[in-house]
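During the first year of the project, the team set up a workflow for recording each protein of interest as an amino acid sequence followed immediately by a discrete structure-token representation. This format lets reviewers and collaborators read both layers of information side by side without switching files. As required by the reporting guidelines, we include two representative entries from the current panel. The first entry is reproduced here exactly as it appears in our internal archive.
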Amino acid sequence: MRTAEITRTTRETDITLYLNLDGTGRADINTGIGFYNHMLTAFAVHSGFDLTVKAKGDLEVDCHHTIEDVGIVLGQAFAKAIDRSTIVRFGSFSVPMDEALAECSLDISGRPYLVFNAHFNAPLIGQYDTSMTEHFFLSFANNSGITLHINVPYGRDDHHKAEAIYKAVAHSLKIAVQKSNNGGVLSSKGVL
């Protein structure tokens, strides 16, 4: 099975994360940040990955370290669980959420990169810093080895924009981790 469990403890956070790429979308999320719990739950449900996250962070400072470090650990777990030589590798998906649209295209290539084109109007959604959306996906991309392009061409409601982003990434990953039928790594070079 394509699974990974990682525990990471720093002076700022203590995180235990379990990921099953062949799950059913079961989520058990507790980060101490309500909206972030909602986003990670949506990510699990829409990717079909089982995801357990138990995170304790220095929320008395702000949400930055918790969100960043969960992104790091999720990326590490994804890199550990995936075998790049057996997958479709690419995935793209668009998610409309009422007036907002989010688009994601990605490549599980081993080459981390993030392009992020989304603007948020408000600094916070509950206790969730909207600027941390980009930072979470940067941490995830860097630690998973994924090239990740995220675009929100329009939308007014920040909740809708953020949720559409997490769901678009989830669906793109669901496509990209499917088993390839070509019998080898999907690259003209023969390696990733």
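The second entry, processed by the same pipeline in the following quarter, appears below.
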Amino acid sequence: MSDTAILATKVLARLQQAGLMLATAESCTGGLIAAAITDLNGASNVLDRGFITYSNEAKTEMLAVREQTLRDHGAVSSQTAAEMAAGALLHSRADIAVSVTGIAGPGGGTAEKPVGLVWFGIAVRDGEPRTVRKQFAGLGRAAVRRDSVMTALGLVLEAAETIANQADVP
């Protein structure tokens, strides 16, 4: 079993235990986070929906990311990742939403936003979204995407644990 499958299994079990639903908002991962969950039996108990929003238009239309945010900060930014996660919650019945936006490469990077830069957003109901920045350097496109999935799943597991502990769910 791959590291991704092992982590996805832990995420699914914890979400199920706590009675939580997940939504994903994915750009550079193109649905790989949702796929990691749906590869597992029981996915329908925890995954509400996944948004693949590769283009800026998709981000604004499907997730309500503000055009001003995209103009001022770009698609690969903390602000966009936060709005993507918040939008996924707004447009779903999920309790937790994770978002990913980045530059997987091999092209598309700049000095300010190099290849391998990925921003993650994590949002929970009745909370403010938070973001995490990762720089995956010199790994290649497939590895950046794989490591992005692992990071996103880790953020979901952490959020599910926090919610479960606050609700005193074993």
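For the second entry, the following points were noted during internal review. The chain is about 45% helix and 20% strand. The mean pLDDT is 96. Both points are flagged for discussion at the upcoming steering committee meeting.
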